[in-house]
Amino acid sequence: MSYISITGLKMKSPFHAPRFWWHAIRSMVQAKRDPNCQLAIARQINGIAHTLTVWNDRKEMLAFLRSGPHREAMRIFPKIGTGYGFGIEADIVPPWDEAHRLWLEHGETIKRV
């Protein structure tokens, strides 16, 4: 059983694009280098930047969330974007259409951790 995190983030303004992508790219690199992350992928759907990450468990995902570049991104996020995330425990990684459906149906407003 793995912990799957699905997020969707949107910039408040196109003027925030350089800052948004700076943090998004650094956070994705951090996730891909994390030994507890089994998969880290991103996709744009309807103008929203989505991520799908797979972790050994929720505790390891939370440790990532609170560290390094991702922590910096979360600190500035409320100023430049809006969005929410959703996490599930599953044996199989959902395809993008299913992940997006789950995000739309069950996502919660992202809070600073």
Which word captures the global form?
globular
Main pleated sheet = 5 strands, antiparallel
CATH second-level architecture: 2-Layer Sandwich
CATH topology: Alpha-Beta Plaits
User: Which series of helices and strands comes N to C?
Assistant: EHEEHHEHE
Number of helices: 4
Q: Share of helix among residues?
A: 40-55%
The chain-level structural class is alpha+beta
Strand arrangement within the widest β-sheet reads 2-3-1-4-5
Summary of the model, kept short:
This protein is α+β, with helices and mostly antiparallel strands.
Q: Could you explain the architecture of this structure?
A:
The protein is of the alpha+beta class and 113 residues long. It has one domain: Alpha-Beta Plaits (2-Layer Sandwich). It is 43% helix and 35% strand. It has 4 helices and 5 strands; from the N terminus they run E-H-E-E-H-H-E-H-E. Helix 1 packs antiparallel against helix 3 (68-80). The radius of gyration is 13 Å and the shape is globular. The protein starts with a strand and ends with a strand.
What keyword list fits this structure?
single chain, 113 residues, alpha+beta, Alpha-Beta Plaits, globular
Which helices and strands, and how do they pair?
Elements: E1 2-11, H1 17-33, E2 37-45, E3 48-55, H2 58-65, H3 68-80, E4 81-90, H4 96-106, E5 108-109
